[in-house]
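User: These chains co-purify. Model them together.
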Amino acid sequence: DVKVTQSSRYLVKRTGEKVFLECVQDMDHENMFWYRQDPGLGLRLIYFSYDVKMKEKGDIPEGYSVSREKKERFSLILESASTNQTSMYLCASSLRAVRSNQPQHFGDGTRLSIL
Amino acid sequence: QQQVKQSPQSLIVQKGGISIINCAYENTAFDYFPWYQQFPGKGPALLIAIRPDVSEKKEGRFTISFNKSAKQFSLHIMDSQPGDSATYFCAASMDYGGSQGNLIFGKGTKLSVKP
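Assistant: Joint model of the two components:
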């Protein structure tokens, strides 16, 4: 079974701090994704990566950056945390294939509060 | 054109009843339509998926109905059970040669099945 592990379930940080959210997958997936989930807004894609050291902006990249130094690990970085970044953050991974029907496997999320 | 519109936002169904969640899309290049199920405190998990070359797919009590001409698809949960209480997301993606498998998600439907 695919396992996507997010390093923290709950995190509380202060405004202006640099915050790192870590995600590790154990199935040798090429694609990795970071989403944020907010009530009534669904899942919104922040960044994704389809290979080591590659990254692409999603729909809401402002205020975030990412790092993928190893295939199994994808980090989300809040450069200077702000209160509007309080949210649930979800990491996902999938196989890269010619056809799009590769399921994304999600971690259980990190609930981040910025005070 | 990249949106997937999902309704209703919330749904209350009696045990044994039929739950119906609807989604609509605009982009005719979408060709993979998965549904994800998310329980509280967990990440979303793939429930069932369909491609537009079929009009219906059934897995146990879960059925996807697909109407290509109307650009709509729906999830039907037959004999709904309290254990089905969760948030459901529809999604869509497209093949584009070396696809990264990006999914466009609906905003979610919170289903409550009353005993």
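Chain B touches chain A at residues 6, 9, 31-32, 34, 41-46, 49, 51, 89, 93-103, 105-108 (CB under 8 Å).
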